[in-house]
Amino acid sequence: MADVNGLADDRALLGRTSTAERVSDILRSRIAAGFFPPGTRLSEDSIGGALGVSRNTLREAFRLLTHERLLEHQLNRGVFVRRLTDEDVEDIYRTRSLVECAVVRGLGEPPYAVDGLADAVSDGRRAARAGDWKGVSTANIHFHRELVALAGSARTDELMRSVFAELRLAFHVVDEPRRLHEPYLARNRQILTALQDGCRDEAERLLAEYLDDSRRRVVDAYRRSGAKDERDDG
């Protein structure tokens, strides 16, 4: 069971109007950050006590995150952070390709509002210089969230927020994060440069290749990680 003491620091985020949605936001962020790794059982008593919320509120938050595929309820065992399958990872990337490429394809005439993308690229390079590969992963997700935001669609942002949170579940169980994330620092920069130059078609081509290569890398790393777990269990 993961240590929940740090959750008490998030109690202030709930304010006076404690709701299941706000609790789910906190837990989603903690799951994405790896505070609760895949396979972790979430204790109602510990988490509810740390956040100062009722059992009913916490159960509703669990239900919301289960709907987002971040949690799963196991009969007679409780609620756990999901462990993704290879098929889950493939489907996540299929969704990413459909949405992200469509966003770039649908951009109007340049110039494009790419300040958020530029900030994410800078954050990733800064994290890499510090050897912070978890930070590189976070900056990479930030880059793609900013890319999706170019559509100006709250519905698309909401959809992809869940997709990116689910993707982080795969990242947390992959060995060698540097090998996984470092190649995309330069590729993010290439996509940014294409958009800064107003080359929408080139940006879409780069993005499509990026996502296809990333899918193969993540699935391969995920499978190797699963094979290692099986050997360790044996």
**Mean pLDDT value:** 89
- Count the beta strands: 3
Strand order of the largest sheet: 1-3-2
Oligomer: single chain
Number of helices, where a helix is a run of at least 4 consecutive DSSP H or I residues: 10
Kindly provide the radius of gyration, computed on alpha-carbon positions and rounded to a whole number of angstroms: 19 Å
Gap from first CA to last CA: 22 Å
Main sheet record: 3 strands, antiparallel
Low-pLDDT parts are none
Notes on the protein architecture:
The model has no long low-confidence stretch (mean pLDDT about 90). β2 and β3 form a beta hairpin. The radius of gyration is 19 Å and the shape is globular. Helix content is about 65%, strand content about 5%. By secondary structure, it is mainly alpha-helical.
In short:
The protein is mainly alpha-helical and 234 residues long. It has helices at 20-32, 44-51, 55-67, 86-105, 115-129, 133-149, 154-171, 177-181, 183-196, 200-233; strands at 41-42, 71-74, 78-81. Helix content is 67%, strand content 4%.
Draw up the topology in text.
Layout: H1 20-32, E1 41-42, H2 44-51, H3 55-67, E2 71-74, E3 78-81, H4 86-105, H5 115-129, H6 133-149, H7 154-171, H8 177-181, H9 183-196, H10 200-233
Antiparallel strand pairs: 1-3, 2-3
